[in-house]
Write a structure and sequence with these properties.
The chain folds into 2 domains: 225 residues, D-Maltodextrin-Binding Protein, domain 2, CATH 3.40.190; 208 residues, Dipeptide-binding Protein, Domain 3 (Dipeptide-binding Protein, domain 3, Roll). Strands 1, 8, 9, 12, 13, 14, 15, 16, 17, 18 and 19 form an 11-stranded mixed sheet that branches. The chain has a 4-stranded antiparallel sheet with strand order 4-5-7-6, with helices on one face. Strands 2-3 form a two-stranded antiparallel sheet. Strand 16, helix 10 and strand 17 form a beta-alpha-beta unit. The protein contains 14 helices and 21 strands. The chain is of the alpha+beta class. GO terms for molecular function: peptide transmembrane transporter activity. One of its GO terms (biological process) is peptide transport. Belongs to the bacterial solute-binding protein 5 family.
Length: 511
């Protein structure tokens, strides 16, 4: 190997290099795959959201208690008719390039996200495709901005706070002279420093970060940081990740296998266990499995308590619903879904004339997901459903998902902290958006109804009705809510999980 390549490899991975001072040593975080995109809100996945949330910020964010809290907006007021939101921006906030945050820049960001050319994945939540449409965004002062809707938009703040749909505020220097995105230049506690596909992505601490007072609080709150460099390393193999952290060559790993928790703790490592609303699901492509009786048979064939017991006992909570167990809106939602019943599954298959043709299960080549798919395959086999596993890398599965090109798929959705966002992600025309799971006029009508409500008591029965209807159509089947298990090196302090299930490395230090 060429000496320069050896040097570059050693520098990039930082597995054995010793820093002269503990705080100068990069915090090495192992990810199962590259981030899907460094452009906020475009071609995103969970890794992208988590990494970029250290670089860019929105007007508001969810706190630890899952309420919407100020971030770049200091405060806001809503007009009596619910159509206009006036935001007062924080003063003294600067982008990584030194540009001050202004109302004009916020307005420019919203106009860019509303432009179809931006490919912002949640544009439909703001342009009227799903819910009320933004009619205008205008700077009303140096540090103020008004967003006006076509009709009352009671869930605007919730949508903006949801990391999957946040209109992240970036500096104009994020784009080149032709308007093409180059790199994220945000206001967050870390600066994007570079990426090498398949190996690592680096963030460096922003020395001039304008932190909020108080404590760390979800993706809002105080984001004061001390670690100089965050290095997100691409380490697809689960064994390599666990061996790496035990050898001191990796500082943080997630998706820790339940069977490893006790042994990692015994070696002096910290293990953070945080229940979340994130969910592992079995996607059923209704345009390829069109007969609802076959989809119902698949649901009856799966024993979710048995599945979760095999995976990790108490760490996973069986739940076929999109309504997260333990939340205000749950309301025993699992009872509305097909219960385990092999005899019923076989009867439905016979009624549908299922002839034993193989049905493919698409799954990413990640240890826990392949394990889930293998157990599902065995359970479906007991009902007489013939399946094959199609194991792909995560980027390929994500591409198939975006094209709707699969029959069954084991997939995970990062936490949506309000059920409205979950149902909005699922319901709609596959012609307009191939990632939609559920084409149903009745469901669309219920979704439109709940989209204009803000009172939890008024929203709850509609979410319950949507849940029951989805249990009949079975366009998707929840498996369990995900408990995020993160292991950290013995010298890492200050890490704390939260219900969104996404890492926060501000406030983290080395001993």
């Amino acid at each position: 190997m060429h000496l320069k390549l050896i040097a570059a490899t050693l520098a990039a991975m930082s597995l054995t290099a010793a820093a002269s001072h503990a705080q100068e040593k990069p915090l090495r975080i192992a990810l199962h795959s590259d981030v899907a995109s460094i452009e906020p809100g475009v071609n995103r996945d969970g890794n992208s959201d988590m990494v970029l949330a250290h670089v860019v910020e929105g007007l508001v964010a969810f706190g630890d208690d899952l309420s919407v809290k100020p971030m770049l907006a200091e405060s806001w007021t809503v007009s009596q008719d619910g159509k206009a939101y006036d935001f007062k921006l924080r003063e003294g906030v600067a982008f990584h390039d030194g540009t001050p945050l202004t109302g004009k820049i916020v307005s420019w960001n919203f106009e860019r996200y509303l432009d179809p050319a931006s490919n912002f994945q949640c544009r439909g939540r703001y342009d009227g495709s799903i819910g009320p449409a933004i009619e205008s965004v205008e700077a009303t002062g140096e540090h103020s901005v008004r967003v006006t809707f076509s009709s009352a938009a009671p869930n605007f703040l919730i949508t903006m706070a949801t990391v999957q749909c946040t209109p992240w505020i970036i500096a104009p220097s994020s784009l080149d002279a032709a308007g093409k995105f180059q790199k994220p230049v945000g206001t967050g506690p870390y600066v994007f420093a570079g990426q090498e596909q398949g190996r690592y992505l680096d963030l460096t601490r922003f020395a001039n970060y304008a932190a909020l007072p108080g404590d760390r609080d979800g993706y809002a709150g105080n984001k004061t940081s001390s670690i100089e460099t965050l290095r997100f390393m691409t380490v697809p193999d689960a064994s390599t990740r666990s061996n790496g952290i035990q050898a001191g060559e990796i500082d943080v790993i997630d998706e820790v296998e339940p069977s490893l928790v006790d042994s990692l703790k015994a070696r002096g490592l910290t293990v953070d266990i945080t229940p979340t609303p994130a969910t592992m699901v079995l996607q059923l492509q209704t345009r390829k499995i069109e007969d609802v009786r076959i989809r119902q048979a698949i649901a009856h064939a799966l024993d979710l308590p048995q599945l979760t017991a095999a995976l990790g006992g108490d760490l996973f909570h069986p739940n076929p619903s999109l309504l997260a167990d333990g939340t205000y809106y749950y309301d025993n939602s699992a009872a509305a879904w097909p219960q385990p019943d092999l005899a019923k599954a076989k009867a439905l298959l016979a009624e549908a004339g299922y002839d034993g043709r193989p049905i493919s299960i698409l799954v990413a080549n990640r240890q826990n997901r392949v394990q889930v798919a293998t157990i599902i395959q065995a359970m479906l086999g007991q009902a007489g459903i013939n399946t094959t596993l199609d194991v792909r890398d995560w980027a390929t599965q994500l591409d198939y998902y975006r094209r709707g090109d699969y029959e069954l798929a084991v997939f995970a959705y990062s936490a949506r902290l309000d059920p409205l966002l979950s149902f909005q992600s699922m319901i709609g025309s596959k012609d307009e958006e191939p990632t939609r799971m559920w084409e149903s006029k009745e469901a669309e009508a219920l979704l439109a109804k709940v989209s204009v409500l803000s009172d939890p008591q008024a929203r709850k029965p509609i979410f319950s009705e949507l849940n029951a209807l989805m249990g009949k159509d079975v366009p998707i089947l929840g498996l369990f809510n995900l408990t995020v298990v993160t292991a950290l090196g013995a010298d890492i302090e200050g890490y704390k999980g939260w219900p969104a299930g996404m890492h926060r490395f501000w406030g983290v230090t080395r001993k």
